[in-house]
Amino acid sequence: MTALEEKIVNDGTVLPGHILKVNSFLNHRLDAAFIMEMGEEIARLFREDKPTLILTIETSGIPIAFAAAVKLGVPVVFAKKHKSGNLSGDLYKTTVHSYTHGTDYTVVAEKKFISDTDRVLIVDDFLANGKALLGLIDIVNQAGATVVGASCAIEKGFQHGGDDLREKGYKVCSLAIVDEMNDDGSITFRQQ
Amino acid sequence: MTALEEKIVNDGTVLPGHILKVNSFLNHRLDAAFIMEMGEEIARLFREDKPTLILTIETSGIPIAFAAAVKLGVPVVFAKKHKSGNLSGDLYKTTVHSYTHGTDYTVVAEKKFISDTDRVLIVDDFLANGKALLGLIDIVNQAGATVVGASCAIEKGFQHGGDDLREKGYKVCSLAIVDEMNDDGSITFRQQ
Asked: CB-CB: which of B32, B69, B80 is closest to A75?
């Protein structure tokens, strides 16, 4: 998605340690109109796969997942990163390793919101090592539902999580794939 | 908003301790189309106040804030509940007391995303004691910006946070106000 690549170049910031900050439009300040355009692009990429549900993970996956859900006419379930006092009943649980924070965390979703007939599209803001997506795929599998694919706004191609999932046979479509990112701020995008 | 009152009655669950669970459409599973309708209603209520920015707080305020932002054509800033590793630069900070969890927590927003010329509409999913809204108002005041009002999906009228803010002169419009909620599941809404 050329408009996203341009936005990353113009508004993003590369920090040491391969951190790409897009706080100005995607995960602190939200450019609502632009996120709706990203949602439309995800809908275009996955409409033929007939998803019935979008699964994402709190917090920063929620806006783009919500935008895609509006465009596809399906609901969202956002998995929660720990057992909140307001979650009750039977939960699907999985463990995700965060390279960013160097810890494991538990992710949960209420069982009643994912049925075995659901065709689930997984959406998130970033795809790096792919551990969060693997956790969400695990939840879909526990539900006996079908994963139709995964879509992320920004994939860090050099961290290989997306390509690992593609090699396993999943349809993974990221709106922009960063193959190289240098401390001088220069970014190389993968041709898609 | 009659449609929301009906949805609360049909899909919500009253739990002991004045807890109203609306996990099935507002804060775990998201009914994207219905949340967009709520966003349209917030836009209708506040368009004349010419907001330039919507401020909310993670996590469950994000979808409805985002929907209102799409309808109003403005961006969202969502305040974060603790200092994340990916937040840097100058931050506005405030402390909010959570009655639900019995603790204080710090809420932050990057200074560069709220300017003194902004007209800020505060949006959240629930309004009970009003402590989260007061924290967000404090952030707007620190920025030297203007609070044009606050809108929440569901206000617990019997906890008085909304009426306290109205008495202070703020325009507070909730889409549904629950004035009574009983352990037998019955709910009385305020006439608006």
From this structure: B32
State the Cα–Cα distance between residues B110 and B124, nearest whole angstrom: 19
Strand partners, A125: none
Q: Is the ipTM of this complex over 0.90?
A: yes
Chain A residues touching B77 at Cβ < 8 A: 28-30
Kindly report each contact of residues A74-78 with a partner whose C-beta sits within 8 Å and lies 24 or more positions away, as own/partner: A74/A121, A74/B32, A75/B29, A75/B30, A75/B31, A75/B32, A76/B29, A76/B30, A76/B32, A76/B63, A77/A53, A77/A109, A77/A113, A77/A114, A77/B28, A77/B29, A77/B30, A78/B28, A78/B30, A78/B59
Question: Is A62 in contact with B67 (Cβ distance < 8 A)?
Answer: no
| pTM assigned to the model | 0.96
Write the pLDDT tens digit of every residue in A4-32. Answer: 999 999 999 999 888 999 999 999 999 99
Q: Which residue in B32, B74, B109 is closest to A66 by CB distance?
A: B32
Q: How far apart (Å, rounded) are the C-alpha atoms in residues B61 and B122? A: 10
Spell out the residues 6+ positions from residue B143 whose beta carbon is closer than 8 angstroms to its own: B92, B111, B114, B115, B116, B118
Contacts of A168 (CB under 8 A, 6+ apart): none
- Partner residues linked to A19 by β-bridges: A15
